[in-house]
C-alpha cells in the first residue's frame, strides 16, 4: 500500500472525495487555504444538467466537460475511487492511503463514465450520431431518475424530428419531485409535440431484444434505441464498512448537522446529494452546500470560533425544467409557469456559462 502526502508545512491537508458539482466547487474554493487533494474516478468535472445537450451540441460538450486541473490549479487530483476511510486516511481503489486533517465527502452519485475527457467527448459525439439516426424510447422507472428524465425533455425537438418518441414512467405523474401543476404542464407540452407518454408502466429491460420492449401492462413497444433515465444510486456504498457506517441513514445518506459536518465529527464534512439535508436534490443546492462548507472549513482550519461558522438553511422547492432550447416549466414559490419566460432564464445556456464562471473559468471558451 502506498502512503500519500506527508504534512505540508503549516497547510492543513484537505481531502475532497468526489469531483462532481459540490466536490469540485469546494476543492476550487479551498485550494489557496489548505493543501487540497481531490479524489475522483474521472479526470474531469462534468456539469450533469448539460450532459444531454452535450450530445446534440458539441460546443456544449466542450464547455461542460472540464478538466479538474483547469480549475484546481493549486491542488492535486487523484484519479481513482475511494473505497474506504478511517479517522485519518482515505483508501483508494489503487491502494493509495491519502492522509487528511479535514475530509469533505461529496460522492453524490456513482455511475460508470469514461476516465478521460477525450473519451467522454467521443462518447457525446457517438450519442449525437445515434440521436440523429434513431427513434427513441425514454424509460423513466423510478423517482430518483427525475433529473435525468428532465434533461431528456430538452432534446425532444431533435428526437421528434428523428421520428417518434415515447416516454414510459412508472409513476402516476411526471416530475414527481415538484408540484402536480408542473407535471401537468409538462405533460401537455409533450403531447403538443406528439410525444407519447405512458404513465404507471415500467419496462423490463432484461427481456428487451431486437428492438422489442415489454411493458408491465404486457404491451410490446418497438424502438431502435432507448434512453434509461432511472437515476443512479447514492454514492455511499464505499462507506458502509467504515468508521462512518453509523452516520448513514436508511437511504444511505450521510447525516449532517447545520454546519454540514458529519454527525458531530469536527473535521469531516459532507455536501451535495449524499447528505440527508431535507430538500430536493439539485445541483444549485449542492453548490450552496459547497460554499457553506468551504466557509466553515476555512474557519476550522484557522482555529476560528464555531460560532462564526455558517448554518446551512434547507431550501424550499424551486425548479426550472427545460423544455427544448427555448421553453421551460418553472416552479417558484406561489406559482408555476411554462413557456418562453422561464426558458429565457435556463434553456438557452443551461447555466453552463454561469457554472464555468463560478469555477473561475471563461464562460464561453470552446477549446479543442
Ligand atoms: C441528467 C441530470 C440532469 C440534472 N439536471 C439538473 C438541473 O437542471 N438543475 C439542478 O439543479 N440539478 C440537476 N441535476 C441534479 C444535480 O446534477 C445533482 O443534484 C448534483 O450533481 C449533485 O452534486 P453532487 O456533487 O452531490 O454529486 P455528483 O454531481 O453526482 O458528483 C459525485 C461525484 O463523486 C464521484 N464519486 C462517486 N463515488 C466515488 C468514490 N467512491 N470515490 C471518489 N469519487 C466518487 C463521481 O464520479 C462524481 O464525480 C441533474 C442531474 C442529472 C444526472
From TrEMBL:
Domain FAD/NAD(P)-binding: 13-111, 164-289
Domain of life, per lineage: Eukaryota
GO cellular component: a single term: cytoplasm
GO MF terms, alphabetically ordered: electron-transferring-flavoprotein dehydrogenase activity; flavin adenine dinucleotide binding
InterPro entries: FAD/NAD-bd_sf, FAD/NAD-binding_dom
A Pfam cross-reference name: Pyr_redox_2
Role played: Putative FAD-dependent oxidoreductase.
Listed name of the protein: FAD/NAD(P)-binding oxidoreductase family protein
Lineage: Eukaryota, Viridiplantae, Streptophyta, Embryophyta, Tracheophyta
Amino acid at each position: 500500500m502506498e502512503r500519500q502526502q506527508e504534512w505540508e508545512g503549516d497547510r492543513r491537508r484537505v481531502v475532497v472525495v468526489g469531483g462532481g458539482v459540490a466536490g469540485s466547487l469546494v476543492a476550487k474554493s479551498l485550494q489557496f487555504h489548505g493543501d487540497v487533494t481531490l479524489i475522483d474516478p474521472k479526470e474531469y468535472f462534468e456539469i450533469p444538467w448539460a450532459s444531454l445537450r452535450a450530445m446534440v451540441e458539441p460546443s456544449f460538450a466542450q464547455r461542460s466537460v472540464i478538466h479538474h486541473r483547469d480549475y484546481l490549479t493549486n491542488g492535486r487530483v487523484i484519479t481513482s475511487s475511494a473505497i474506504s476511510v478511517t479517522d485519518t486516511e482515505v483508501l483508494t481503489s489503487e491502494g493509495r492511503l491519502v492522509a487528511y486533517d479535514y475530509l469533505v465527502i461529496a460522492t453524490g452519485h456513482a455511475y460508470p463514465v469514461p476516465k478521460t475527457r477525450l473519451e467522454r467527448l467521443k462518447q457525446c459525439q457517438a450519442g449525437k450520431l445515434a440521436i440523429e439516426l434513431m427513434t427513441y424510447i425514454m424509460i423513466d422507472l423510478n423517482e430518483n431518475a427525475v433529473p435525468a428524465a428532465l434533461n431528456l425533455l430538452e432534446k425532444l425537438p431533435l428526437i421528434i424530428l428523428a421520428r417518434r418518441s415515447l416516454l414510459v414512467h412508472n409513476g402516476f405523474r411526471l416530475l414527481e419531485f415538484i408540484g402536480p401543476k408542473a407535471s401537468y404542464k409538462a405533460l401537455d407540452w409533450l403531447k403538443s409535440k406528439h410525444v407519447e407518454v405512458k404513465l404507471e408502466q415500467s419496462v423490463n429491460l432484461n427481456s428487451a431484444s431486437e428492438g422489442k420492449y415489454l411493458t408491465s401492462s404486457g404491451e410490446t413497444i418497438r424502438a431502435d434505441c432507448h434512453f434509461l433515465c432511472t437515476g443512479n444510486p447514492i454514492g455511499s456504498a464505499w462507506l458502509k464498512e467504515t468508521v462512518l457506517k453509523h452516520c448513514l441513514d436508511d437511504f444511505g445518506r450521510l447525516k449532517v448537522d447545520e454546519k454540514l459536518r458529519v454527525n458531530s465529527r469536527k473535521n469531516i464534512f459532507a455536501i451535495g446529494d449524499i447528505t440527508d439535508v431535507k430538500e430536493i436534490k439539485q445541483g444549485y443546492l449542492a453548490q450552496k452546500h459547497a460554499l457553506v462548507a468551504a466557509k466553515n472549513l476555512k474557519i476550522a482550519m484557522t482555529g476560528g470560533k464555531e460560532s462564526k461558522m455558517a448554518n446551512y438553511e434547507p431550501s424550499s422547492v424551486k425548479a426550472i425544467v427545460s423544455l427544448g432550447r427555448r421553453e421551460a416549466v418553472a416552479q417558484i414559490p406561489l406559482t408555476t409557469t411554462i413557456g418562453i419566460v422561464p426558458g429565457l432564464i435556463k434553456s438557452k445556456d443551461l447555466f453552463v456559462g454561469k457554472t464555468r464562471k463560478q469555477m473561475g473559468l471563461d464562460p464561453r471558451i470552446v477549446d479543442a
